[in-house]
Amino acid sequence: MQTRRTRERYFTPAEANAALPALRAAAEAARTSSRERQDLLDRLRGDRELLPHARRSAAREAERLRQEVHMRLDEIAEAGAEVVGLRSLRIAFPALRDGLEVALDWKEGEPRVVFWRPPYGDKENRNYIISPESSRWTWSH
After folding, report:
1. Predicted TM-score of the model (pTM)
2. Which of 20, 31, 87, 89 has the fewest Cβ atoms within 10 angstroms?
């Protein structure tokens, strides 16, 4: 039987927008490390003449980059948000709207969090936040 985990926190639109710059920077760093790791792994696979010590060194660097990605994703999770996409950055902030769990949704290229969506299922079913300061978004910590 699957149980739903109780959230430690929910974001209001204002709180999500306040947290966005730091979390976006962490997600960008995770994406950069992920791309560097993938490039390194691709080079390792393609270069059959690489000397064993250079191959071991590259493997250690790939592992360091993997750990860096996980550290950044953990940092975002500890803040209460979730990275939904790394290639095209996307961050979800759990929220309560009229007492129902939703996700405040930010995509790369958007200046701030201005959409919400259901927390599960179709992530493209986004709704514009009409009144971010309304009492619809309040919750007690």
Report:
1. 0.84
2. 87
